[in-house]
Specification:
Layout (H helix, E strand, L loop, with lengths): L4 H16 L8 E5 L4 E3 L7 H13 L2 E6 L12 H4 L3 E6 L10 H6 L4 E6 L1 H4 L5 H17 L5 E3 L14 H6 L19 E4 L1 H7 L2 H7 L4 E7 L2 E7 L9 H15 L9 H6 L11
Helix pairs in contact: 1-6
C-alpha cells in the first residue's frame, strides 16, 4: 500500500464526493501514526483545507490508520446497535513495511491492508435505495481494482466500517482473528450479498469456468485484478431481498474457502444475547 498513496487519495476523494458529502458536512477524521500517536483532524474536514491536511499526512507515509466517523464518547459495546454504529464510517488500515521479516505472521500474511466503508440504515431508512446499491457497487469495483484487492464484500449488516481491522460477523461468530489467522489470501471472510473472488479463491473452487457456471448468484462479473481474472458474485438483484436459504446455498458453495485452521465459536453467545444486531449469518 505504501506505493499507492495517490490511489488512496483518489479513492478518499471519490467517497467524500459521492457517498459522504450528500449525507454529512461535518465528520472528524481520526488518524493513527506509526508511533502510536493519534490525532483528530478537525470536525469539519470536508473542505479543501481540511482534506489537504489529510492528504499531506498520507503522502508523508507514517500513517497506519485513518477513521472517518462521528465522535463516540461512550462505551459503545454496552450501547444498543443503533447508537454504537456510526451513521457514516470509512476506515483505512495498512502496515507498510513496519514488520520485521523474522515475524512468522508477517512471513505468512504480510498483514492485511484494509479499506472499508458503511452507511447506516439511519441515513436512508430501513430499505436500501437502488441508487445507494448502485453507488456501493461502483465504489467497490473502484477500490478492489485500483488497490489490487485480495478479497472484499458488500453486505447489509450492523457494522463499524470506520474500524478497518474489525472482524466480519462470520469471523466474530467463530472467534477468528483475521490479523493472526494465516492463509487469508486463499480464504474468504464469510459469505455475503456481494463477494470478490480472486485467483487463489477461484483456483480452490475449480477455476473460472466452473465458478461462472455453478456459483449460486444472480450476477457474475469478471474483473481483472493485478493482471489476473477475478469474479464478482452478486447473490440477488436487490440487497434488501436475500433469504437465509440463499445464504445457505452460497455458504455451501464457499465451503472450500471457509475452512479455517482453528475456530473457537466464542462469538456465538454474543449474537444470541444481542438480537437487535443485524448479522446475515446462517450458522445453524
Amino acid at each position: 500500500m505504501d506505493d499507492k498513496t495517490d490511489m488512496l487519495i483518489r479513492l478518499i476523494k471519490a467517497f467524500v464526493q459521492e457517498a459522504i458529502l450528500p449525507f454529512s458536512e461535518s465528520l472528524p477524521v481520526i488518524i493513527s501514526y506509526e508511533k502510536k500517536k493519534t490525532e483528530v483532524v478537525g470536525n469539519s474536514p470536508f473542505n479543501e483545507k481540511g482534506l489537504d491536511k489529510l492528504y499531506k499526512l498520507l503522502k508523508k507515509g507514517d500513517i497506519i490508520d485513518v477513521s472517518i466517523r462521528e465522535n463516540l464518547t461512550f462505551d459503545y459495546w454496552d450501547a444498543a446497535p443503533q447508537y454504537y454504529i456510526p451513521r457514516i464510517g470509512l476506515g483505512l488500515h495498512w502496515w507498510g513495511d513496519t514488520r520485521p521479516a523474522s515475524d512468522p505472521v508477517w512471513r505468512i500474511n504480510k498483514y492485511m491492508n484494509t479499506f472499508s466503508f458503511a452507511l447506516s440504515e439511519r441515513v436512508f431508512g430501513p430499505v436500501v435505495p437502488q441508487d445507494i446499491q448502485r453507488l456501493f457497487i461502483q465504489l467497490f469495483r473502484m477500490v478492489v481494482s485500483e488497490l489490487n484487492a485480495v478479497t472484499g464484500q458488500i453486505s447489509f449488516d450492523s457494522t463499524r466500517a470506520d474500524s478497518a481491522v474489525s472482524r466480519t460477523h462470520f469471523e466474530g461468530y467463530h472467534g477468528i482473528d483475521p490479523e493472526k489467522q494465516p492463509g487469508y489470501t486463499e480464504r474468504l471472510h464469510g459469505y455475503h450479498w456481494m463477494n470478490l473472488l480472486t485467483s487463489g479463491h477461484i483456483a480452490k473452487l475449480g477455476g473460472v469456468d466452473y465458478v461462472l457456471q455453478e456459483a449460486p448468484a444472480y450476477r457474475k462479473e469478471i474483473l481483472e485484478i493485478n493482471g489476473e481474472s477475478a469474479i464478482l458474485l452478486q447473490l440477488t438483484e436487490d440487497i434488501n431481498d436475500y433469504s437465509d436459504d440463499a445464504l445457505r446455498t452460497l455458504r455451501t458453495f464457499f465451503l472450500p474457502l471457509l475452512h479455517w485452521d482453528s475456530v473457537s465459536g466464542e462469538g456465538a453467545s454474543f449474537y444470541a444475547q444481542n438480537p437487535t444486531i443485524t448479522a446475515r449469518l446462517v450458522e445453524d
